Amino acid sequence: MTTELEQLKKKVNDLEALVKKQTLLISTTGKNVMQLQLNQQRNDVQKFDETFNAKNNVPPIDPTDFATNGDLVELVAELQGELNRIEERSIRRVVNSTKLDGNDTLAPMPNPDGEIPSLEQKDWFPISLSDFENIPDVKLYKLAKFYERLPEKVKEEEDYENLLKRQNETVQINDLDEKEIMKELKKFSEEEINEMFNEVARFLGVRSRRGTNIW
């Protein structure tokens, strides 16, 4: 058992190292490609400018109107931030996939906006594997909403409502009214609620599944 555990830990460490290596490679490559494109763009503009102006007597184009290094730095920073979130989620999914005992603590997963629920938020985030496997439907709905794993028809309705209200702020899960959630849950069949559970499980990296769609 000890040997198997050590092998499993080694696999987790190897995966973490691979994710970090890939993140660094993508970030460096992206920055280099954008720098080359910018240099090529400026050279092309300069050549065209010189040829055209010589023939037509027009003022030269100022290449500083195009993308600057500052723009590139900002773009790369945004890309790096997204890669960091992807890396964080990948690591935590690997960790959660090793949780087999009901008392094992789950690693909280960042949502698409990068927010991570704290372990103190026991009112809706499952602390252990057992908590997740036995999660009530209301808490499951809150969890699915936080991780944007709600069924497609609900997401479409929310997108439309947010567009009308022009609300782009982060959803406060604790502020969701349980009576409204219960009303929403009545719209779903048992199979759809099971699929909601499975969608959240896949996102968290947990192996537990419900129903027949258990990939």
What does this structure look like?
- The protein has 215 residues and is mainly alpha-helical.
- It folds into 2 domains: 98 residues; 114 residues, no CATH class.
- The chain has 7 helices and no strands.
- About 4% of the residues have low confidence.
Summarize the structure.
The chain has 215 residues and is an all-alpha fold. It is 63% helix and 0% strand.
Strand content: under 5%
Major sheet, described briefly? none
Coarse structural class = mainly alpha
Write down the overall geometry: elongated
Total of domains: 2
Number of helices: 7
C-alpha termini separation? 27 Å
Average of pLDDT: 76
Number of DSSP strand runs: 0
Order of helices and strands: HHHHHHH
Helix content: 55-70%
Give the low-confidence spans. Answer: 163-170
Radius of gyration (Å): 24 Å
Organism: Naumovozyma dairenensis (strain ATCC 10597 / BCRC 20456 / CBS 421 / NBRC 0211 / NRRL Y-12639)
Pfam families: DUF3294
Protein name: Mrp8p
